[in-house]
Specification:
Rossmann fold, Arc Repressor Mutant, subunit A, about 240 residues, alpha/beta, 9 helices, 5-stranded parallel sheet, 13 strands
């Protein structure tokens, strides 16, 4: 990707008018795109070519959009922006739980699409090399170990789990600033708080279920009402 505006984006959308709107908007801003009108066609295409980001409508004709999302996340790490109707609150929540990076509600403005696409692509850019960060490969906290390079989380009893990119970024934010209150704005890293505030709460909840014995009464990731979240651990760096 020599030209940062030439990322390939897959548009998975069965409504021709919506697909044309998304495609023309992406093209106007310099992105390459391909349209797939079914989940099966999209999944088959991934065997040959993987995009930098996919815009996935959850209402597909041939298979459940959640199943498409699940299959993608089981095999690939690229940006996922889901598209749902305004009434599909359950779909938005479930999509974020399954590893989508963000969502858009129909109908949407072209500039909203581009803003969200850019935000997701930034998160998937490789970090600039830095002596401090490249020297540190893992963190130990509360009996757990987290490897930054592989996103591997190892429990105190040795169980291993691979975190999604969104979960890994959230955990990294907490581990870099332990015992500090982090606002939702800080955890969102400059993204729109009003629209996406709920997504951070969902990811914190998901992280708690991995780390806490009793997620309802969390001892590690604490809610500071009216302020944000605090990770109450001591962190040792490797």
């Amino acid at each position: 990707m020599g030209d940062k505006q030439k990322e390939l984006i897959h548009v998975v959308e069965d409504e021709p008018a919506v697909a044309r709107l998304i495609g023309s908007t992406l093209e106007n801003f310099g992105y390459r795109y391909e349209v797939f009108d079914s989940g099966g066609e999209f999944l088959r295409s991934l065997r040959l070519q993987v995009p930098q980001l996919a815009v996935l409508d959850l209402g597909l004709p041939d298979m459940d959009g959640m199943e498409v999302l699940h299959q993608v996340r089981a095999r690939h790490r690229f940006g996922l922006l889901i598209v749902t109707g305004r009434s599909d609150t359950h779909d938005r929540v479930m999509g974020l739980e399954l590893g989508a990076d963000d969502y858009m509600l129909k109908p949407f403005e072209p500039r909203e699409l581009i803003a969200r696409v850019r935000s997701i692509l930034r998160r998937y850019m490789p970090p600039a090399p830095d002596a401090a960060t490249t020297a540190v490969r893992a963190a130990r906290f509360g009996g757990w170990r987290f490897d930054f390079g592989t996103h591997l989380l190892v429990s105190p009893d040795g169980r291993e789990e691979s975190l999604s990119l969104a979960e890994a970024q959230l955990l990294t934010a907490f581990l870099e600033r332990p015992n500090q209150i982090l606002s939702r704005e800080q955890l969102l890293a400059g993204r729109e708080v009003s629209a996406l505030d709920r997504s951070i709460d969902l990811r914190v909840s998901r992280l708690r279920r991995r780390l806490e014995e009793n997620p309802v009464h969390a001892k590690m990731i604490k809610t500071v009402y009216g302020a944000g979240y605090l990770m109450a651990v001591e962190v040792d760096w490797e």
